Hints:
The protein has 230 residues and is an alpha+beta fold. It is built from six helices and eleven strands. The chain has a five-stranded antiparallel β-sheet, covered by helices on one side. Strands 6-11 form a two-stranded antiparallel ribbon. A two-stranded antiparallel ribbon has the order 7-10.
Amino acid sequence: MKSAASWIFVGTFGRVLECWDRETREYVAIKVVRSIRKYRDAAMIEIDVLNRLAENEKYRSLCVQIQRWFDYRNHICIVFEKLGPSLYDFLKRNRYQPFPVELVREFGRQLLESVAYMHELRLIHTDLKPENILLVSSEFIKVPSSKKSSQDEMHFKCLPKSSAIKLIDFGSTAFDNQEHNSIVSTRHYRAPEIILGLGWSFPCDIWSVGCILVELCSVRSLLTLLFFQH
Length: 230
C-alpha cells in the first residue's frame, strides 16, 4: 500500500506524486495518467519502452527505473524510483544562473551515453529537454556567485552535490521502424529537419542534446541566441 505525500509535478498528462511505499519503506514517485485514451496509450508506450530499457543492466545508471505499474479506476499509474529535481527546476530555483562548464560537460557525457543506449535499442526519445533530465539526488551546496548587487553584497548560488542524472518521460518515444508523426520535440529543442518537414530519425535527439547543453551554459535557448541577439 502507498500513501500520497505531495505533488512533484502536474502536467497535461496528469500528475506525479511523491509517495511512501509501506512495503519497501522507501519513497517512490508515481505517475498518475489522466483517464483519456491518448494519454493512456502514451503511458502504455512508456511502460513498453521502460521494460525494454530495463532488460540491460546498464540501464540502471542512465534512465529512470520503473518498479511496477497498475490501472486504478481507468488511470494508468507507473511507479518509479524517487529522484531529485529536473535540471530546469534546478536552474529556476537558482534564479537562472548557469551551471559551471565542467558540470555541463559531465551532464553532456551522461546524456550522450543514455541517448546512445536508446539508439542501440532502435528507440528515439523525441522529447529531450531540461525538464526531462532529473538529478539523481536533491542534495546541493552553496557557493559564492560572481553576481553582486549594487551594494556589493555577496550572492550565492546552488550547485548539486552529485552530477549524476537520469532521463525520464518516454511517453513520446518512437520506435525506429514505426510510422513517425510529422511534428515531435518541444519547439526550442526541435531539429531543423522536423521544422522543414524533411522527416526525422535518430539525429533529432542529438540536436536536442546540443540545445540543452547550450541552455545549461548560458540559461538561454539556442533559438534565442541565434535569432534574437542584437
